Amino acid sequence: MKSFPVAWRWTLAALIAVVALAVAIWPRGARETPRAASETTRPPAAVSPGLRAAAQLADCPRPAPGAVGSGPLAGITVDCLATGGPVDLAAAVAGRPVLLNLWTYWCPPCAEELPALQRYAERPGAVTVLTVHSDPDEAKALARLTDLDVRLPGVQDGGAKVRSAVKAPAVQPISVLVRADGSVAKVVVRPFRDADDIAATVAAELGAAA
């Protein structure tokens, strides 16, 4: 059998390449992307009462009688990590200076900073520290806090509503220093080194010494 001339072999190779390219860029059906996403996305694990109890977190702040939330946090409702119940965030922190710490269970600097926040919160004169878990997986947040032996009050904000409200960048950890009137004094876009660093920053921005 005679072999193809060189020119025909090059033509055939070019034709195969064109067909392969056409297959690669051919538009897929509209259903393909959602189906692929559903196969790779896993819903967060449900939080069992035992997991919540094991974390032994302090309860979330309660609104003072007649307190009305104001500032950028107004209208935000999140869930309390200690109980699973809803929290009107602006009302809960109204009338007191607060440090909101935005973190996620998978963030290494957050794991280093959270124990320092615990130590700061135990000092006389410390402002209220409220952790804000900014990932949808609440169960992993509770497990992480249990491992770190951090018992601070905290809320679950899987939709990052707090971060959006204060216009903070999408990084962790972030600490938001909130004045008693609900206004934001400072958005701290870095991890604190230790309790002394936290105390110095809070004193400078909120005027509360601890």
Number of helices: 8
Category by helix and strand content: alpha/beta
Q: Give the tally of β-strands.
A: 7
What is the makeup of the main sheet? 7 strands, mixed
Span of the ends, CA to CA? 94 Å
Indicate the low-confidence ranges by residue numbers: 18-40
Major beta sheet, strand line-up: 2-1-5-4-3-6-7
GO molecular function: oxidoreductase activity
Subcellular location: Cell envelope
Keywords: Cytochrome c-type biogenesis, Disulfide bond, Redox-active center, Signal-anchor, Transmembrane
GO biological process, one term: cytochrome complex assembly
Question: How would you concisely characterize the structure shown here?
Answer:
Helix content is 40%, strand content 15%.
Could you characterize the architecture of this molecule?
- This is TlpA family protein disulfide reductase.
- With 210 residues, this protein is an alpha/beta fold.
- It is 40% helix and 15% strand.
- Strands 2-1-5-4-3-6-7 form a 7-stranded mixed sheet.
- A hairpin with a 5-residue loop joins strand 6 (174-178) and strand 7 (184-188).
- The longest helix has 20 residues, at 6-25.
- Residues 18-40 have low confidence and may be disordered.
